[in-house]
Amino acid sequence: MSVEQELIERVLGCAAEDDPELNETIYKNFYQAMPDAEQLMSHVDEGVRGKMMAEIYRLFLSDSVAASDGDYLVFETKTHANSYFVRPDMYGVLGDVLLQTLRLSAARVWSPAVEAAVSQRLNALTTAIARALTRH
Questions:
Q1: Could you tell me which of 20, 27, 85, 87 has the C-alpha nearest to residue 56?
Q2: With bands split at pLDDT 50, 70 and 90, how would you rate the model's confidence at 27?
Q3: Is the pLDDT of residue 104 over 80?
Q4: Are 37 and 85 in contact (CB under 8 A)?
């Protein structure tokens, strides 16, 4: 396991321990940063929001998301755009919100190395999503 992977797993574990409502904190921060996203998701219940966050965590934890999940991301982003009217800019805002929320929720383990690992992984994920968006 790479050092980057270890840091990401550690920061997610710490954030979950220190903020038992981490998913709701992320959604609250996302809705604050992008109010129209809250309206788009007004019909989504807590169970579905939980599944969505589980998928975000899965992708975030994948150290090869661009290679292993490319077709999946094309399918998902196309579905999000066509069925739920998700705009491409929402993914970048979500990435920024994840970084900011993890920085606060896992403050006790945050360091320059963690910042770099989380930022690099989020950049890789948002780059993969941006590529997927251009493929459909």
A1: 27
A2: very high
A3: yes
A4: no
